[in-house]
Amino acid sequence: CGGVLISDQFVLTAAHCFPNESTSFISVRMGSINISNSTDCSGETTRLHTSQRSDEPEGNAAPNGPVVCAEVEDICVPLQEHCSFFMEDIAIVKLKRPVNITNHIQPISLPENCDEPSLIAATYIAGWGLAYDIDIIDNEAFEDDDDTADKEVNVITFSPSTLCQRNITLINKTACQNQFSTNVPHYILCSTGGSCSGDSGGPLVYESNGAWFLVGIHSGGDKNCSWPEAPGLHIKVSYFVSKLIMPFMGLSNNSQTKKTDICATDKDRIQCVTKLYGAYSGSVE
Length: 285
What we know:
By secondary structure, this protein is α+β, with helices and mostly antiparallel strands. 12% of the residues lie in helices and 29% in strands. The chain has four helices and 15 strands. It has helices at 173-180, 241-249, 259-262, 266-279; strands spanning 4-5, 10-13, 27-30, 52-53, 67-76, 91-95, 123-127, 131-140, 149-158, 164-168, 170-171, 188-191, 203-208, 211-220, 232-236.
């Protein structure tokens, strides 16, 4: 899964990235766009407590490289009303220690005053999800009296090693509901697609007056990444700023608010994520 840093100690991602109870095996990797030649953050022998690593093999790592592997202290998923296709598929992750903000590691701005980009604004998604090449082959007819040619389209999918971005187009709620033939909750943003398996939890962003703002967290989309028939789904971050994000970030400073007031239990989170995978005809295994 992807994610996006919103402060020196908190990351936003998708709730369905956490189908299991334990967070001990989870690390957050920051500071590099290339994942092809660096050691995985997850193993006990390689996981670091926010110490820096280069984007080189472990044995050749520079002592002050740009990559940070941060352990997770806690996860908060909102209390759910719809544990299915339209669940509130967002999670805020607290790191065990704050990370140093550098040229390679910077938090994005949250939406201000519930501002949202217009439907014609340039919005982008980013991630290491599956990418694809389209190869069109012309098969000339063998008959002398046939001037037609059949075209064969081959779609080749691959896992990119370098972070990819794509410009996508938001679509209005009415058009989205017409395509799904059902009501779409107000915390869902719909787009023309463009994401693929592995992009979950990644950011949907746009630029305004020289600053980049977080619009949404990618939740899901059509299984056909190259020619999607259904809209892409993104969780609207502005809806959760005052409801989830700021309260969870302030828990340590506000004794009147309890985690159970804003976050689902591990049991409820697992049950809800399992139902979401079922709605997509998938499995958490």
